[in-house]
């Protein structure tokens, strides 16, 4: 049973392709303590905070926006080998971590979860977590956040002395790969590929995904409001042969390996 820092949970549980990480009594106790000691979360301004559309350098690597609208925010993280994110918490939002490539481990206050291509972690609001790249090479993750609020962040422990600090303001312009508006989705912007050239991001209809499966597809993230409201986004794990049918009346953000053709 989970409960100690040495617990290791398989990346898939039975037939379920989603590993659920929900907050427990220890998370709530620690969160109460850090808030009592002065830690605060911020609020992202939807029509401001424009630096969030650029590359955000991190001591462990970098991250940048893949897709955003008024309700959902999707980021690509590159964690260099041997490095790790802080042990942190998002009290107000639900987070999904999707592994595009590499090997790593996700840690909570009480357990560890192996991370590899096709791993899908659902991290409930209030659950402390950290992710480390084990190598060889970087760990590539996509972080899906709902509802959108990049400043919903409290760092508990950090290997780079960022405890109790808010989200970074430092940024680097990615002139050759800017976020672009999506004309048919309200207030939506996106990038269509990764700077490293290894991954492709594309908005596709559920009907297209169903009738035209592709071997390079890794995940399909639904962009409708139902999942944001219910807290169950219904992300499809193509990398692991997910047999669930996409909603034919839904748009999805498809995350795929880049191809040379």
Automatic annotation (TrEMBL):
Gene3D superfamilies on file: Jelly Rolls
SUPFAM superfamilies referenced in this protein's UniProt entry, alphabetically: RmlC-like cupins
Protein's name in the database: Cupin domain-containing protein
Organism listed in the record: Streptomyces luteoverticillatus
